[in-house]
Specification:
- The structure is a single chain.
- This protein is an alpha/beta fold.
- It has a domain of about 150 residues: P-loop containing nucleotide triphosphate hydrolases (Rossmann fold), CATH 3.40.50.300.
- About 40% of the residues lie in helices and about 25% in strands.
- The chain contains 10 helices and 10 strands.
- The strands form 2 sheets. The chain has a 6-stranded mixed sheet with strand order 6-7-8-3-9-10, sandwiched between helices.
- The chain is globular and about 60 Å long.
- The N and C termini lie far apart (about 60 Å).
- The mean pLDDT is about 90.
- The chain binds adenosine-5'-diphosphate and magnesium ion.
Length: about 260
């Protein structure tokens, strides 16, 4: 693998009983790139991310994160990666201040600098009022902000974020986008998952469309349009074609229109 690849996944599989959550997935994320895993609920995004972080053991396949083996080098990877999980924060009995101090201490950061920095992020995300509130009492969006701040405090080389914008209001989404932009402009890379097409279209350099545990399209928007044979189409049309949902969506729409006419 070349140094330019921050993530390299080859033939990855993970089954839960007879559920083929990840079924032969391959992709790579290059240095300085924002790569999006875009797919419907249940497509296998979270499972892929957990495998990459060594939180689940693969059934088959090769994975390298920052050139390191996910399973053997979990600790080294954790040092250089910032992770935002799909579930709300688990440290519910802490306050954000406690949480950031904890992150600073396990990551050997200068505590004063880290807390100044956390404050600035809190301010820009309009969440400074919650600095000393119990995490358990925060809204989903505010918990998400705290997770994002904890993930970036140590300036990771790679950010891995599972549905990072879920629950955030429009203004915070704008701020998080800026945070990601600053991160890549300063040499970082990002892998994130989303089920929202506009998010993928706006943020990603390249997108991997994932459906039923498989990558069904990969590349820039233009490359995806080519793969779907939909030149000039928007990402939604491309996505529906690649996930083979376009005809079923058309059928559903026709039925809905007929129902509407019948009862009007
Ligand atoms: N621990 C688990 N045990 C059994 N099935 C699971 C488990 N985790 C995920 N799955 C199943 O694997 C599939 C992919 O799930 P997931 O990776 O969470 O999808 P996504 O994040 O794209 O919504 C789904 O069918 C889900 O129900
Ligand atoms: Mg998920």
């Amino acid at each position: 693998m070349s140094d330019a690849e921050m993530i390299k996944v080859d033939g990855l599989k993970k089954f839960f009983g007879n559920v083929k959550a990840v079924n032969d997935i391959s992709f790579s994320v290059k240095n300085g790139e924002v790569f999006g895993l875009l797919g419907p609920n249940g497509a296998g995004k979270t499972t892929t991310i957990k495998l990459l972080l060594g939180l689940l053991e693969p059934d088959e396949g090769e994975m390298k994160v920052l050139g390191l083996d996910s399973f053997k080098n979990e600790i080294e990877i954790k040092k250089r990666v910032g992770y935002v999980s799909e579930e709300p924060l688990i440290f519910k009995s802490l306050t954000p201040r406690n949480l950031f101090n904890f992150v600073a201490s396990i990551r050997n950061l200068d505590e004063i600098k880290a807390s100044e920095r956390a404050r600035e992020y809190l301010e820009s995300l309009e969440a400074l009022d919650y600095y000393d509130s119990l995490i358990a009492t925060l809204s989903h969006g505010n918990k998400q902000k705290m997770q994002i701040i904890s993930a970036i405090l140590h300036d990771p080389d790679l950010l891995i974020m599972d549905e990072p914008l879920s629950g955030l209001d429009a203004k915070s989404v704008r701020v998080v986008k800026e945070i990601l932009d600053l991160h890549t402009r300063n040499g970082g890379s990002v892998l994130f998952s989303t089920h929202i097409m506009e998010v993928a279209q706006e943020l990603c350099d390249r997108i991997g469309i994932i459906n039923k545990g498989k990558i069904v399209g990969i590349g820039t928007i233009d490359e995806l349009r080519n793969q779907a044979d939909k030149i000039g189409a928007n990402l939604e049309e491309v996505f529906l074609r690649l996930t083979e949902q376009d005809t079923s969506v058309n059928d559903i729409i026709k039925k809905l229109q007929a129902t509407y006419r019948r009862y009007k």
